[in-house]
Amino acid sequence: MGEIFRQLSGLLEHLGEKRIAVLHLFGAEIRFDVMAIIMSWVVIILLVLLALWLRRGLRQPVEEKPTRTQAALDGLIDLLKSQLADNFASERLAVMMFPFISTLFLYVLLCNWIGVFPYMMSPTQDINVTFGLALMVAIMSHVLAARSNGVRTWLKSFLEPYPFMLPINLVGVIANPLSHAFRLFGNILAGTILVTVIMVKFAPIIVPPVLNIFFGLFFGGIQAFVFAILAVAYINVAVEG
């Protein structure tokens, strides 16, 4: 039992350590987290395989009775539409953005959930991953605003309601993706740290699996939903004003 406690106490010493790879490109030094990149690709591959499996289950004549795969997929699509797409300000925007926002939700959800398994790390524990996702949402929202309302109207929106509000509006443009990214990153990382500390200090056998399931599945699902619904809100504000 003492050996188990010694091994667990070693987790605290290495908590927060990352395997950083350095790439020298055209005289510049680029650093990246190897584990975060690997786990991100694992999540992408799992989502692609899931999509291919679901697509295979849909190959049957329309008039036949729906299979369990079809029923499950219909239920998932209806759930995503009711919880995410229906929050868009217009039907046109909801139809246009449903594939993007549902994919974003499923990707973040699986990123959060994969950390439940041993020797796996949630990619959303890395601020670079969450900031990349938040920056993608921010850029897309402004591109859609310029396309939907015209470039002139989009630029004019930074001067509303008064021209002297331009600096504050620009600060808001920068602050939105930052808060979007740090909210997800902070919550997922905090859950991982909490489970690790309790595992080492209090109950290394019984309680940690329960906490790991709670923070990894339930709490991870909530954070994925919050991230997606905030993306919907930012797109709404940018496009519909």
Account of the 3D structure:
With 241 residues, this protein is mainly alpha-helical. It has helices spanning 2-13, 34-56, 68-83, 91-113, 127-149, 151-156, 166-201, 207-240, and strands spanning 20-25, 28-33. β1 and β2 (28-33) form a beta hairpin.
Structural class based on helices, strands and sheet pairing = mainly alpha
How many structural domains can be distinguished in the coordinates? Answer: 1
Q: Number of DSSP strands? A: 2
The H/E string reads HEEHHHHHHH
Put simply, the count of helices is 8
**Mean pLDDT over the full residue set:** 81
Strand content: under 5%
Terminal Cα separation, in Å? Answer: 61 Å
Strand order of the largest sheet: 1-2
The rough form would be described as globular
Q: Which bin fits the share of residues in helices?
A: over 70%
Main pleated-sheet profile: 2 strands, antiparallel
CA gyration radius, whole angstroms: 22 Å
Poorly predicted regions: 1-5
Write out key terms for the chains shown:
two-stranded antiparallel sheet; 241 residues; 8 helices; mainly alpha; disordered N terminus
